[in-house]
User: What shape does this take?
Amino acid sequence: MKVENRHRTIRLPLEEIRRAARLALRRVGRPRAEVAIRLLSDSAMRSLNRKFHGRDEATDCLAFYYDEEKRRGALRGHVGDIAISLDRARVNARRWHEPFRREVRRYVVHGILHLAGFRDRGPGRSRMLRVQEEILDRSDELTT
Assistant: This one.
């Protein structure tokens, strides 16, 4: 598992990110799957969002599958990348009165659930959010 912090000023323990990712991968039944996680600025996220989704705005988390044809539930080998905006995490953590590092872990889990085929729109939304919070609560236990 590759975790890379490309943000110029915000630092956090990368092993904590890896633990949350491994926990999420185990929860979706894919403990051997590999993902690359990149921690970015709003500016970098805005560029990715514009390039891949046509939206000229920063976002908190983007998940990219390596093989679109096998993306649904096919978490084997190196399956994709997750990009996370540390700037968005900081803003949203303040807004929702959450610890910053927990908000970052939320985005890690969210991205992995997307790679596993979960949807955050439509009828699957409530299930995704329930599983996400379950994993996040478990990750809290591992970081304290």
About this structure: The CA atoms of residues 1 and 34 lie 5 Å apart.
